[in-house]
Structure formats: structure tokens, C-alpha cells
Amino acid sequence: MNTTNANALAAMADALCATAEEAGRIILDIYEEGFEVELKPDDSPITRADRASHVFVSKRLGELYPDIPLLSEEGIHLPIAERSRWQRFFLLDPLDGTKEFVKRNGEFTVNIALVEGRSPVLGIVRIPVRGVTYWGGPHLGAFRRHDGGEAQPIATAAPGPGGPVLLASRSHPAPETEAFAARNGVTRRIDAGGAVKFCLLAEGTAHLYPRFNVTWEWDTAAGHALILGAGGSFTAPDGGDFPYNKEDLANGGFFAAWK
Ligand SMILES: Nc1ncnc2c1ncn2[C@@H]1O[C@H](COP(=O)(O)O)[C@@H](OP(=O)(O)O)[C@H]1O
Ligand SMILES: [Mg+2]
Prior knowledge:
Layout: H1 6-33, E1 38-39, E2 45-46, H2 48-64, E3 70-72, H3 80-83, E4 88-96, H4 98-103, E5 109-116, E6 119-127, E7 132-137, E8 141-146, E9 152-153, E10 165-169, H5 175-183, E11 188-192, H6 196-202, E12 208-211, E13 215-216, H7 217-229, E14 233-235, E15 250-251, E16 254-257
Helix pairs in contact: 1-2, 6-7
The site of adenosine-3'-5'-diphosphate has 18 residues, from strand 4, helix 4 and strand 13.
């Protein structure tokens, strides 16, 4: 398989960050104007912000990279017979943390990843309300940039004297999280929405993110690449591979941590 070299990935990171930032502005306009909440067939919420971000990012990526297919949460999901021919593809969650967007707590993100074969090689996470973008990949390192500032390298960090900080979903709690914390003597915890959790792990603010309930490939691919770039680990719960482009696009649990 042809793989994208580090220089090409770094150039692509610039273009994808700009795209995610523009999508974030479109989302914020709607956040401020107001919106209706509809339910998808699986009863999860969707708004015109999810759709507007999807339309903008898919159009922009199609112009910039016409040869790279895109799989978006809000787009058409082609069958595996078609997708299995893809050597690489973009994986987009145009508004991750829609429940947080609806609750207006600011913890929502735009996630764009480039997957090669079964692995994410580049991930962008934009947090529009905080005005910050995170990006990285296993051959690229990891970076954070506040609007108007310079790119800063970031890395996962070992827990300090207070012990590890655990990450958990704000809107989709799992009972196993409590048991994990008790078993491992973890006393500090941050609940956060969507891919904000991956950013907190990648910059060393938190240390452990065990996930027990369902996520989809577009929820994790960008954060997965970011954490590998920041020197952390991201595996299946048994320590094995965590592949993408699966038939049903649904993830099992995972374990992301500092290393
Ligand atoms: N019961 C549920 N209902 C809706 N979404 C769920 C869910 N359980 C997990 N999810 C997924 O969890 C994502 C949010 O992550 P977190 O739980 O870490 O905040 C959602 O992404 P979207 O908001 O993009 O739909 C969705 O894909
Ligand atoms: Mg999502």
C-alpha cells in the first residue's frame, strides 16, 4: 500500500485544521442563532449544525483531495464491499458531542481523521467554543494551537503524586467506569463530551480513558491518531489492535492512556 509521507501529512494537517476551524465557525453561528433538535432513527439527536458542518467539510475535502474518499457520520455509508477497496479515506464526525451542543455546555468538537489501511495516521480535533485545535499522528507528533497563537507540541504525561485522572463520557456514562476506578484506586475524574476527552489525554491533563460502551469509528479515529502522536497508547481492552473500516463501523470498548 502507498502510504502518505510525513511531509505530505504535515501539509495535509494544515489544510485539515483550517477546514475544521471553518466548520467550527459555521457551527458556532448556529449555536448562537438557535436550532431545533431532531432525532435520528437510533434516537440520537441531530441539528442543522451537524448537517451544515458535514456539507461544508465534505465539499472542501472533495475540492482539496478529490482522490480520497470520505466517510462521514452524516453522509452515505457505503457497504463494506466498496469500502474494503479503499487504501485510505477521511473519517469525519462533523459535530461530535451533539448532546453537549444541545445542552450548550461547549464540549463538542469537529473530528477529521485520515485512515490508511485499518489505522488512523492523522487526526484533527477542533473545540470551537474554546477556540483551540489539536492535531497529530503517529509519524507526526501532536500539537495544540489556540486561536491567534503558535502551534505548541504536546505529549501525554505520567500521573503526578495525586494519582491518575480518569476520563469518562458526560452524556453516556457506563457503570463499568466506577468499577474500573475503584479497582485501580483512581480518585480523580473528569467527565467531558465527545473528543474533548482525547485532547485532555494528549496534553497530559488526564491519564486514563477506559471506554466500555459503544462509540462509532468517526468518534474515535481523530483522537486515536492524536493520542498516538502524543506518545500515548490506544488499544482494544485486551491490549490488541483497534482497527477501522469495519463492516458495521461500530467500535467495541477501548483503552487509551499515557505511556
Ligand atoms: N446511547 C447513545 N446515544 C447516542 N450516542 C451515543 C450513545 N452511546 C454512545 N454514543 C456515541 O457517543 C458519542 C459522544 O461521545 P461521548 O459519549 O464520549 O460524549 C456520540 O457522538 P455524536 O455526538 O457525534 O453522535 C455517539 O456516537
Ligand atoms: Mg460523534
